[in-house]
Amino acid sequence: MIPGEVGIPELRFEIVDHDADSVVFDAPVAVGDELRLRHTHSVHRRPVVEVFSVSRSWELAMEEMRFDRMGANLPSGPETIGGVRTTFLAEGDGYRVLHHGRVLGTVELMVGSATVDHVLTAPGGQRVRLLDVAPSGTRVELRIGPAPGSVTAG
Predict the structure, then answer these.
(1) Which residues of the chain are under the pLDDT cut of 50?
(2) Is the whole-model pTM more than 0.85?
(3) Which of 48, 38, 32 is nearest to 123 (CA)?
């Protein structure tokens, strides 16, 4: 099934503000597209990049996490999460944890302060700073869904 074909919806990546119950950002996506979330870790104040993809089931999947130093609440070796064993790699500029497309469904998080500064990069390079769409402390959900009105008769 390919989104956009007859009977298959176009897909959208959405950021939903739970408090306002509204979509505060959306962008077109396709199965296999990657999204990157960059932020400064709230405890050890170092950059972290999380890479997600759009799964075949039209959900977010975890691909990898990158960071340059070990710290609190960051992996220090391989782990088994949801039945998937991660691969932990020490590289010249830091660490990469491969999650091998582990399907998450949606991702919920709290919008961090300007110090944390969550910035999401959507496919095609479109960037959105979460503080530009919701105040610090707002609970948001990252999700994939069909674009309104995109399902066509088969």
Answers:
(1) 1, 3-5, 152-154
(2) yes
(3) 32
